[in-house]
Amino acid sequence: MVSVDDSRLTELAAEPPERLFPVLDRAAAMGPLVVLMAVLPGLTSLAVVPFERPTVELGASPPPVADLEIQSPWGRWLVAQPWRDWPSLDRLPAKWLPVVPAYLASVVLVWMVWHAARGLFGARTGLLAVVVVCCHTPVVLLGRTIEPLALSAVVATATVTGFVTHLQRTNHWLSVFLLVAALGLATTLLLAAPLACPVVVLVVTAVICHPAGELGVWGNGAVVTRTPVAGRWHGPVSGFLMIGGAVVLVSMWELKDGQPLTHSGILAGIGRGLSGWPVPIGRLEWLRTLGWLSGPLLLGIVDVTRDVFGANRDRRPVAVLAMVWAILVPLSIGLAESGYPFHLAEAFVVVPLAVLAARGIESICERRVTVGPVVAATWLSGCLGADGLLGRMLGQVVAGTGWQLVVVLLMAIAVGTGVAVSCRDNEVYRRRILVGCLVLVLVSQVITGWLQVPVATLDVLALAEN
Known about the structure:
- Residues 54-68, 212-230, 393-399 and 461-466 have low confidence and may be disordered.
- This protein has one domain (29-50, 67-465).
- The chain is globular and about 80 Å long.
- The protein is mainly alpha-helical.
- Helix 8 (149-169) packs parallel to helix 10 (196-209).
- It has helices at 6-13, 31-48, 73-80, 87-90, 100-121, 123-133, 137-141, 149-169, 176-191, 196-209, 229-232, 234-256, 265-272, 286-290, 294-309, 316-335, 340-348, 350-365, 371-394, 402-422, 427-451, 453-465.
- The protein contains 22 helices and no strands.
């Protein structure tokens, strides 16, 4: 006979901890707030820090992008900026009007982050993803570039989300979502060929993780059903139709210009997204890029990994797709050549980083993570976030060396352990600490991200002039 002491009975009888911010349950009805967060940060930054073109000689065109890197006429049109010398623009007081297309593309990118996070993990994750990315400095700067980087990230993400939506919502081989995915892949090949390989890898991952019926890691093994033979080929056939349709569209476009696909610059552009190795991955300046997102991103990776290897099979397929997308972040950065392919990879990795960071914040709100790891992650975010802000202002990275980063990690673990032990038996203190950590990270991410824009803009102008 097994005996149970009073402390164990008390532990079993205790109610589970309450969730934080129940208002997030209404995230599906917060579409207007998402629109405001997508529009206002870039607009206010353009008003406060006016756009300045890099100085060029009289009669010279702005820095061009190689013809082999952009195959679409609309991409070349965006780079050429024919509207920059319109007489009507010179009479208007706003200097940032020439970059309106780039700004609008960055707004759509924020909306695409919301759409991708909501489609994969739900409306709460989508809303949190917009909160963490709307004032993120790299995203705001995408509205100031002459290259169509934000638009490229939008069409690449639309390819993945459209294909996943097709697999989730329909059992037919053809649908509107599959058409959107095919058009997105074709546009990606024409506008951002170096991103084609990461997009295809994500599509193949979705096919492997999402067979029809109750098969594989996407199905529910607790339910026994008969799956038609045609249903088993739903994912592979849909993927073949999408990729084949995109190749046909691109081939027709190239043949219209009198150039076959094998002799066009698309294949060379795809190769430029893979031939940059072994350029150090550190060229992205991860400390400045992540900043306050580093802690939530780490918690998000842990949460997704738990879903991948957990017993709940319903969460596994989306978690596998998110994990593969996270693995592609350093790979796409490390494999891309310098210049336009590298900038494309920078823009594309914004989406998975925002989704994973939002997933980490949601794990705190849902109380899936305890106080210790949250405090440690907040400490890490504070150190790297302050380092990013000071590094922008002082022109150097304070915690850039490896051993300094190790010290920060050890201090984060020590602080998290100490706080967890001190409030072990007090739910009120634990709840206050978690709320304080969330408010600190979110408010600091919004404020510091916006404050870094002026100095980061000067850095971009200096690079453009050199």
